[in-house]
Here is the input.
Amino acid sequence: MSTTRKAIIVGAGIAGLATALRLRQIGWEPVVFERAPARRTGGYVLHLSGLGYEAAERLNILTELRQRHFGAFDLVFVKPDGRLRFSARARDVEAMLGGRNLNLLRSDVEAVLYDAVRDQVDIRFDAELQDIEQDATGVRAVFADGTVESADLLIGADGRHSKVRSLLFGPEETFRRDLNHMVAAFMLDRLPETLGERVFTSLATTGRTLGILNIGPDRTAGIFAYHTTDPAAELARGSAQALADRYGDLGWIVPDLLDRLRHSQAVHFDSGSEIVLGQWSKQRVVLLGDSAWLMPIYAGYGASLAIGAADRLGTALAEAQGDIPAALHVWETALHPEARKKQRIGRRNARVQIPRSPFHLVLRDLPVRIATSAPAARLRRLLPA
Here is the structure.
């Protein structure tokens, strides 16, 4: 007679919820613990592709994600005073990205996953992990309110500043690789008046960039990213002061943005970095998502790899017939090359997207200029569909 296996999942973001959904599919009983008092909203724009797109099909959430997909958009590149540098049409951008690619807000992906699992998975908010104990028979998690939960497996999906990782492998500083830039992502309550609807507007000067994307009424996302050799000092100043120092000399819409962000509590401000670990698991505890392989933001693959990894973890556990350490080894060995490859792409893209010189600014724009040019459009029409 088979016994239902139980999993503790720490973190109710994309990685944690996708893992809970996949484990339910294979007959496990996941319990999700989230440190925050409620689901987070807002966040940045992401692309779902590759492993993530394939996994969304198998998790039966692709239809719901497609409904949230905001499609391609016009690209407008401007000078520091707001004058046009060049632009690209949405249809050319869509052709460049390909068909199996969804443009989504992080909060929308999380909402779809939450709706898929909330009626079949126990999700507990305001639950702060304190300690982990494990042996050959199981794992126990101790929380700040005194709760002790036992399970067959514990999955740390608690993000870039993971508590599970620190308990398992040590301080974050040991595994974090700073990439010498800062990122501030935010949502705006209204579109700046000079910008177009359903348009991504980008401004870049040496060492810094700004992007604003409108995806519909009351849905405008923005991102500041700039070069720095001292991320710790930037974090110590806080987002309002750091952004004012770096962008305060610019005109156009920038003063208005800085003023609005100065009074906002919903700015995600952190160093551009990645997590590099030689292994992601020990016995019956495993890391998944940003806690294991934090992607550089310009990899554009963090959510995709998290959902794809959750799907593959479920498959490995189902095929292992109860040998959990063996399943984790198989899963991890297969996934490590993909994570390392995408991190390399992210590091390369960051150097291009935050141009260090006028020459690098030209390099940043060149692929888009070529891919959306008239000759490229004619070539695509000649190729088989």
